[in-house]
Write a structure and sequence with these properties.
Blueprint lengths: L27 E7 L2 E10 L4 E8 L2 E9 L5 H27 L1 H20 L3 H14 L4 H10 L2
Antiparallel strand pairs: 1-2, 2-3, 3-4
Helix pairs in contact: 1-2, 1-3, 2-3, 3-4
């Protein structure tokens, strides 16, 4: 992804977020291609324990499991909590990777997160897209493209 700068295109229309049905449980998956393999984050609802479980896997092997208490009964609030927990963990991982790779790594990670945010938006997952775009803004706070994209997603 070196040198790749994703562009926001289209007529600027925002997709209408779909309200989750009462029986739906939020879940999110993100991935990032790294030089030695694919890093995947998968967040799912564990109703028995009223929590979200996020699995961090690399090359098909689970590296870490993170549990986030939920406590919300409203499906929209559950989606918000899941998106926030997922994005915060992704931000932590990206920050650690950037420390190892230097400043060029921040640009690569930001580009990957930007693409992931746009893909989430295309699937109608507005909350996930906003959370991921905030991660991009944390990595590239002075980038005008990122500021404009975030302003459109989260006015």
């Amino acid at each position: 992804m070196t040198g790749v700068v994703p562009q926001v295109t289209g007529d600027g229309a925002r997709p209408t977020p779909r309200s989750p049905a009462a029986h739906e449980r939020p879940g999110l998956t993100s991935s990032m291609e790294l030089p030695r393999g694919l890093l995947t984050l998968q967040t799912e609802w564990n109703g028995d324990a009223d929590e979200f479980v996020t699995i961090v896997a690399f090359g098909g092997r689970v590296l870490k499991t993170v549990r986030t208490p939920c406590g919300a009964t409203d499906p929209s609030e559950q989606h918000r909590i899941a998106s926030q927990a997922h994005a915060e963990l992704m931000r932590t991982i990206v920050t650690k990777l950037d420390a190892r790779r230097g400043s060029n790594g921040a640009n690569e990670a930001a580009a990957q997160l930007f693409v992931t945010a746009i893909e989430a938006l295309e699937r109608g997952e507005l909350r996930s897209a906003v959370a991921l775009m905030h991660c991009v803004a944390d990595l590239l706070p002075d980038d005008p493209l990122v500021r404009r994209a975030l302003a459109r997603l989260d006015p």
